Fold this sequence. Notes:
Layout: H1 2-14, H2 49-59, H3 75-94, H4 101-110, H5 119-127, H6 136-150, H7 163-173
Helix pairs in contact: 3-4, 5-6
Amino acid sequence: xxxxxxxxxxxxxxxxxxxxxxxxxxxxxxxxxxxxxxxxxxxxxxxxxxxxxxxxxxxxxxxxxxxxxxxxxxxxxxxxxxxxxxxxxxxxxxxxxxxxxxxxxxxxxxxxxxxxxxxxxxxxxxxxxxxxxxxxxxxxxxxxxxxxxxxxxxxxxxxxxxxxxxxxxxxxxx
Length: 174
């Protein structure tokens, strides 16, 4: 965790001058290896909060999820992306110096084509101690359990504990 905290600090300081835009871009290879600056360009327009977390772990060579296993966005994901775009347009209207028309155009092009990494799925992938990178179904299942736990609802299906968890349980019951 100290390594991740150090990387976060480095990324923060490297990107002070230019913030990382909010968009639906892919988290893989999002930062320059030497400068740690966000690699903004024609094919990289920004990150969501969840994809930023994935990008940080990816930069630390601790890839949490199997990106190729993630499904294309569903109807709910596209609706969410449209709400984000509406919010960006509103922000542009109120604060034109913070959001450019070019950025809004780039985000529009990503609508419906960029995978959605939900925060609970990213948390689920980080919580699973098994083989990484984690596949979509496992991250989604663990993410649902995390949400249920936070809402204090019974967990539907408990995930398979890690080897250490199984040993700890075995010792506890002896």
